[in-house]
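Researcher: Good morning. I'm working through a list of sequences from a screen, and I'd like to move beyond sequence-only analysis. For each chain I'm collecting a predicted structure so we can compare shapes side by side. This is the next one on the list. No need for commentary yet; just the structure.
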Amino acid sequence: MKKITLFFAGCAAMVTHELYAQQACSGARRDIASMSSTERTQLRDAIIAYLRSETDPSYPTNNIRYYKNVAHHINHFYDIHHQPGNATIFFKWHRYYIQEMEHWFLTNGYQQFVPLPTWNPNYTTTVPSMFMDAVNAITASQYGSIGSANATPISNTSYLVPNACSSTDADVYAAGVENNYHDDIHNDLSGTMGQTYSSAAAIFWPWHAYVDDLWFCYQRNCKNLKSDLYVKKYDTDEGTTPVPSTVPLWTAPDIWVRNNPDGFVNRTSEHLTNTSPTDKAYVYVKVMNRGAAPNMDGTGDISTYWAQGSVGVHWPNPWTGSGPTITCDGVARPLGGPIGSKPLRRVNENFTDPTHSPAVVHKDYYIYEYEWDMPDPDNYSCFSEVWEQQHFCILARMNDELGTPTGSDIYINMTNSNNIAMRNVTILKDDIQTAPGVPKPAGILWGNYTNLMVNNTKLMIRFENPQDVQLLNIADITLKVDNATRQQWLAGGGIAQEANLEGNAFRMRNNGAFIAGFTLPPNTVKGLTVAVTPRQGQQIDRVYQFDLVQYNDERLAGGERYVVEVGNHTAATQSGVANMPVKEQKSDYLLYPNPAQTSFAIQYAGNADKLMKVYVYDHLGRMLQEYTNVENGQELSVTSLPNGLYIVKITNNETGKTDTQKLIISR
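Model: Good morning. Structure tokens for this chain:
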């Protein structure tokens, strides 16, 4: 193998290193100097695991391009270093390179190292020992080792705020950092760090995280560039406002819920199941950035809330737990409440990577996880139908640099702010039996959550996809209200368009059909049932979707999406991909004993000869143990794990299908 020696331009004058008080700026990445020795070792191991995570079999194992994440730096080295007139590409490309590692950390149980910590050689001139031992590179025999543990960097004062702001041209600043400071450290450490494949050394990553901090502070303090964080409300959402009026704002794809804390890996929503008072759910929110710079880490917050399913919610009622309640079985039940709040983490701006042809836009993100003591649907037994208990909404509200609207009209807030998003979810408790081929009904709340009288409320069905309107040719959609609501509607001269009143149910005959003329006193909440019934001789032949929308005085108050599914024939609020079964599917795997003391085994109901891969995660989503080629009934030791709740992920070696189970360790 030919060895290419890389000479970084720059000087290596001996100077006294800067005090830590002169670090880049507050709100940036934390320095490994503030971490314990154990944490630094864990960080090193996480970096090595990432570098080893992808290989290219087109190269022999001893080739420097065998590991893809190192080859990425090698392949683009001369495109992004020392580019006259485009020096900022050095900063931009390496930030993207680091964020790819951070994304991998998020999905593999290393969330505590996002954002990636820094190594500041002007504070700690010696590379920490755990980054200098036998695994300082992926394999020492392949990439060699670092030549020296000691750095003698030049002063970084010129590149710190406020001195950095004397460089009014970003290209001049970038060239100065790269040529006169960055290169100096690579030359000092030499060995692996002096090659095009320097990213094979674990210390490369904290070092470049520090270089990224310099760029971050220059952007924020010298150029006054800002972030603009957002949560997607629809699939093609780029965070622009106002949101088009045709977009339903209750199906946000970047909010999802899971029964287990596995949402960093499985980023799709599923129906939740509540079978005991101790059951918990997990809420995930993905945040992106459309601004020109990263946000300040730890500044601002993102909070999540729940509410009983409704098409007429406002702010702050019922999300904060204030406002109206429902009395069920003699107990006043809340119609919503807070789930949790977390400080905002840093998210990078979009990066257009010119090293690809055509150029590729890379988008950064951060995912927040919340443990949710979800409400028990049985507590809402005052609803006339069981299924009315099961539908809920999740709201995410973020306070970033641009602020968040606090007005009471939540739909206007979501339309005009990219900091607010909402999603419908379902919590299952009781199975609902219907005749074969007949969709199960679904319930929803509607009403007036404000302190003012609403004199003209309208309920409308709306199909977003014209093809879905064909559902009305083969089935009846009905909205069933209670008798008191029907009488009030009739007494007030109720209005119906393309809707027939049949008993207490309104049959909606066409797209845009509505019933109107309801008068709602302050803090009045009602329930209704949505049912889809195939006509004689017809059957549901595919997946259909429609929205139930509420207007107050011709102003949109909110809505709920319904999915009519093939197979289990369910009309239910949108809480995942189409064809998601409403009834929880029984697993093919059984963990025993559970709770476990020193070991557990897996019983597979399928072919007992098939081997499995088994991973054990803690409640933060960090992978703690991995077992390969596990046989049916094989004992798996957990003696090193403390008491608590764990998630076991099982992968069938032959089919690749996965399953997740809860495991309790109790001694």
